[in-house]
Structures
1.
Amino acid sequence: MATSSPGRQPQNDGCHTVSLSGHVGFSSLPDQLVKKSIEQGFCFNILCIGETGIGKSTLINSLFNTSFDDPVSAHFLPNVGLRAQTYELQESNVLLKLTIVNTVGFGDQINKEDRALSCTVLHLQKIKEVLFLGAGHSLKTLDLLTMKSLDSKVNIIPIIGKADSISKTQLQKFKSKIMSELVSNGIHIYQFPADDEAVSEINTIMNGHLPFAVVGSTEEVKIGNRMVRARQYPWGVVEVENENHCDFVKLREMLICTNMEDLREQTHAQHYELYRRCRLEEMGFRDIGPENKPVSLQEAYEAKRHEFYFELQRKEEELRQQFVQRVKEKEAILKESEQQMQSKFEHLMLMHQEAKLELGKKKKVLEDQIAMFIEKKANAELLQSQASVSTPVVSLKRDKDRKNSNFI
Ligand code: GTP
Ligand code: MG
C-alpha cells in the first residue's frame, strides 16, 4: 500500500511527513494508552533504608496518607533483613500497587558494615524502582558504604529524618555537609530530571533542596478549624505539610506527583539494564563486543555452548581415566588380599594336618593302653575264678576277716 500523498515532504532521516485527507483514527492512541494503564494499574516499589526507629514507617504512612500497620522492629537483631509488603491503593480511578520494602535491624549490629551491605545488595534483585535512605542526623560510614554499593542499582533519594529535632541553621549546614560528603565519596544520587520543559524548572529548584529534611507523624492536630498531620510539643506544633516547618511536601510532590514515572523508567532503563548486563557477564555472556559493537546473543550463546561442550567432554574423559585408575587400584588390592587369604588357608590346612596326625598317634597309644588293660582285666578275672574253685572255705573266711577288719 502506498503511503505517499501530494502533501509529502522529504526529511533528512529518510522519513517523510504526509498530510491526511481524512480521519484515520490513531489520534486516539494516547487515550488507548491511558485506558490500558488505568485498567492494568501502576506498580511502584520503595525501599526504605534507615536505622531502627529513625521514622521510616511514620514517613511512609504520612506520604501515602494511610496506616500500613508496619510492626515495630527490635533493636538487637543479629542480622539485617528486608521486610516487603505489597498494598493496593486507589485514588480516583487509578490503582497503585505499592510495594514497601523496609530494612529491619539496619545499623543495630556490632559488625554493621558487613551485615548491612550483604543484606541490601543480596536482596536488591527483587526491588526495581526506588530507594530512599533515611540518613538520620549524621552520615555514618555505614550510610555511605550502603549508598555506594547501591547507587548503580537503584535511584537514591537521601532524606534527613526527624528534622524537627534539629534547628534551621544547623539543618542548612547539615544539608551542605551531606551533599559534599556524597560528592567526595563518589555517590550518585537521583537527580530530578531537568530535560522535560514542563517540570524542568521545579525539578532543578528541588535538586537544590536535597537532601529533603522531613518530619513524619501519625497524629492529627487542630490548627484553626482544620485537622492537620502534625507533632505536638509543649512549645508548639510541627506541621508535617507546612513547608516552613520541613521538606515533607517537597518530597511528596517530587516523589509521587511529578517524578514517579521518571523514577520507574530510570530504574528500568538504567539500573535494570546495568543489572541485566552484569548478570549476563556473570554467566559469561556479553551483548556488547569490543568497540561497543552489539553482539548477537545467539552467536554468543552458540560459542559458549561449544566451549561448555568441549569442557564437558574434557571433564568426562578426565573422570573416565580416574575411574579406570581406581578400578585398577582396587583390583590390585583385591588380588593381594586374595593371595594373603590363600597362604593363610594353606597354613591352616598344614596345621590341621599336623594336629590330625598328632591326634592319630595319641589315639593309637590310648587304644593300645585300653587293649592292654582289657587283657590284664581278663587275666585277673581268670585267676580269681580259678582261685575261688580250689579254696572256697578259706576264701569265705578271708572275706569275713576282711569285712571285720573294716570295723576296727
Ligand atoms: P523500625 O521499623 O522499628 O525500624 O522504626 P521506624 O524507622 O519505622 O520508625 P517509626 O516510624 O516506627 O518511628 C519511631 C519513633 O520515632 C516513633 O515514636 C515515632 O513517633 C517517632 N517519629 C517518627 N517520625 C518522627 C519525626 O519526624 N520526628 C520525631 N521527633 N519523631 C518521629
Ligand atoms: Mg518501621
2.
Amino acid sequence: MSNSAEKPTLFDLTGRTALVTGASRGIGRATAIALASRGAHVAINYQSNESAARDTLSAIEQLGGTGELLPFDVSQSDAVTRAVDDLASRKGLHIAVANAGVTRDGLLLRMKDDDLETVLAVNLKGPAYLSRAAVRVMMRQRFGRLIFMSSIVGEMGNAGQAAYAAAKSGLLGLARSIAREYGARNVTANVVSPGFIETEMTSGLPEEVKKKYLEATPVGRLGRPDEIAAAVVYLASNEASFVTGTVLRVNGGLYL
Ligand code: NAP
C-alpha cells in the first residue's frame, strides 16, 4: 500500500482488484466508483444493461481510476466461475462484492415457483457461486475480502417479500461460515445490510410505502447508494483486517 503524500492513508486500495456484481446501476455502481476512487481496479459486472455499465466505467475513468466490464449472469454457476478465473488470471482478485439482486414481490400464498427460483438463484445461489470461485483464488494469495449485500428485510422479514427475505438472511449464514472456514488464510467475509436506499429497485414503490419508511427512520431521510458504498470500502480495506463474520447495518436507524 502506498504512503505517498497525495494518497489517503486510510482505506487505500491501490494494487487491489475488486469485482462488484450488479455494478451497472444503483448501489453496485456507487460501490464500484468508491472502490476505484481508493485505487482498486474494478471489474464491473452486470447482466444485460451494457450502456449503464459503460456509464459506471466512464465515471471511474473520469476520477482517474481503472476498471473493466465483466458481464455474466450471477445465477449461472459456470459463467460465474469462468469470469472469476479469467479476471484472477489477468489481474488477480482481492475484493469480491456480491451485490447483484432482484425482487419479485407478492404474498407467500400467491408466490409462483418461477419467482421463488429466480429470487433464490440471483440473491442467494449467485453469492455462493461467486464466493466459492473467489475463495479459491484468495486463500492461495492469503488475502481476500468478501462482502455480501444483504438487506434490512433479511433481518426483519417483510410482508410480500418472503423469498427475498429468506435469500438475504441466507447471506448471513453464508458469510459467517466462510469467515470460520477461511479466516486463518486472511480471507474475511462480511455482510452489509442496507435500509431503504433510493435506487431503481425502490423507485417503483408506492408513495405511501416510502412515506412509511421515512417516518420510521430516525435520521429522517432515505439512504443514498454512496452511503452503502462507503461501508463496502471500509470492509474491503486493510483497516478492517480484524472484522469478519459481521453484519454492518447502514439503515439510518430504521432497524436497531
Ligand atoms: P438495482 O438498482 O435494481 O440494480 C440491480 C443490479 O443487479 C443491476 O446492476 C443489474 O444488472 C444487476 N443484476 C440483476 N440480476 C442480475 C444477474 N442475474 N446477474 C448479474 N447482475 C444482475 O438494485 P439496487 O437497489 O442497487 O440493489 C443492489 C443490492 O442491494 C441488491 O442485492 C439489493 O437486494 C440490495 N438492497 C437494496 C436496497 C435498496 O433500498 N435499494 C435495500 C437493501 C438491500 P443490469 O443493469 O444488467 O440489469
